[in-house]
Specification:
This protein has 94 residues and is α/β, with parallel strands linked by helices. It has helices at residues 24-35, 47-60, 79-93; strands at 15-19, 39-44, 69-73. The longest helix has 15 residues, at 79-93. This is Short-chain alcohol dehydrogenase.
Length: 94
């Protein structure tokens, strides 16, 4: 059974974190989920990578310009980096 973007329901009111959202399939995932109404946290190691990814997403999915795509600094190379991202995220949603 084939599955496409059209099969994804409205995601308004949902919050989603996408790790590796600044490139490849992660970036495409951010674009699609945001265009479906979700608030998406694009997790990346640097804000520069986030900004470049966001520009790419807006170019490829013009409907995402009005979407909520937020930066979440995430460096999974250390446990401290992962913990810091979790704390940052918790402070944003609480």
């Amino acid at each position: 059974m084939p599955f496409s973007e059209a099969d994804i329901p409205d995601l308004a009111g949902k919050t989603i974190i996408v790790t590796g959202g600044n490139s490849g399939i992660g970036k495409q995932t951010v674009a699609v989920l945001a265009s479906k109404g979700a608030k998406v946290y694009l997790a990346a190691r640097s804000e520069d990578k986030y900004k470049q990814a966001l520009a790419d997403i807006h170019n490829s999915h013009p409907d995402s310009v009005k979407a909520q795509i937020e930066f979440l600094k995430l460096d999974l190379s250390t446990a401290a980096g992962a913990k810091a991202a979790a704390e940052d995220f918790k402070s944003c949603v609480i």
